[in-house]
Design brief:
Distance between the termini: 44 Å
Strand order of the largest sheet: 6-5-4-3-7
Structural class: alpha+beta
Shape: globular
CATH topology of the largest domain: SH3 type barrels
CATH architecture of the largest domain: Roll
Order of helices and strands: HHHEEHHHHEEEEEH
Helix content: 40-55%
Number of strands: 7
Radius of gyration: 22 Å
Length: 231
């Protein structure tokens, strides 16, 4: 990473966290502590309102904020397409946050780019019969907090079963979203189609299992083979 790119990335990273130690930044950007000290010093000299010391950690001042990055027309269009497509599958609990995020992106665009994005949105249609139901806030919370869940899984044409699962990650496969999880019933990783989960009850925290992280499962089933998606 070029130094200018790294300086900007450090500034943005500090803006999204409460306080970070120099070691945290060094690990994040793959550089030495000495390099981080020089970079933070350069940002301070350039006028960035960074507070703290190497020993106590760094953060942006409470009253400080960073101006949003300018988006190119192509970047804005990519975000608009992604938001429109995901908006067709997102659960009710995430529709409002997605709409707010799209509004915030639109607010930082210049007039020409904003009109270009609006024109593109008018040319994108997502049919109402789309059935790829996406994750809701409860599923995302379980992923973030490493909490198990008691579910009733009822795929079309199959009998339903009660499962206790440990959520690992999400896969969008064709027209459906799948939750990859460790299944205590099958004693292995399985993928559960989200729109086939008839009941969900979040449980207690679980500890990561050796060799069964989301990255491990994806690496093992590199092409996400049908075995992983088997009932």
């Amino acid at each position: 990473m070029a130094r200018l790119d790294r300086l900007l990335a450090i500034a943005l990273h500090l803006g999204s966290r409460k306080r970070l130690l120099a070691r945290d930044l060094a690990d994040r950007f793959g550089v030495s502590l000495r390099t981080i000290y020089r970079d933070v010093g350069a940002l301070i000299e350039a006028g960035f309102p960074i507070e703290g010391t190497a020993g106590d950690g760094y953060r942006l001042g409470h009253d400080a904020y960073l101006r949003p990055l300018a988006l190119t027309p192509e970047e804005a269009e990519a975000i608009a397409i992604a938001a429109r497509g995901y908006g067709a599958t997102v659960s009710a609990s995430l529709k409002e946050p997605l709409a707010r995020a799209a509004t915030k992106v639109e607010a930082v665009l210049d007039r020409a780019t904003r009109e270009r994005v609006k024109d593109l949105e008018r040319r994108i249609v997502v049919p109402t019969f789309t059935r790829a139901i996406g994750p809701d806030a409860e599923v995302l919370a379980a992923l973030h907090e490493r909490k198990s869940a008691r579910i009733r899984y009822a795929p079309a044409g199959e009998r339903s079963t009660a499962r206790t699962i440990e959520p690992l990650g999400l896969v969008c496969r064709g027209d459906a979203w799948w939750l990859v999880a460790y299944c205590r019933l099958r004693r292995d990783a399985r993928a559960f189609r989200l729109d086939a989960i008839a009941e969900w009850r979040t449980g207690g925290a679980f500890s990561p299992r050796a060799g069964l992280s989301f990255a491990d499962v994806v690496a093992r089933d590199r092409h996400l083979a049908d075995r992983l998606f088997g009932y």
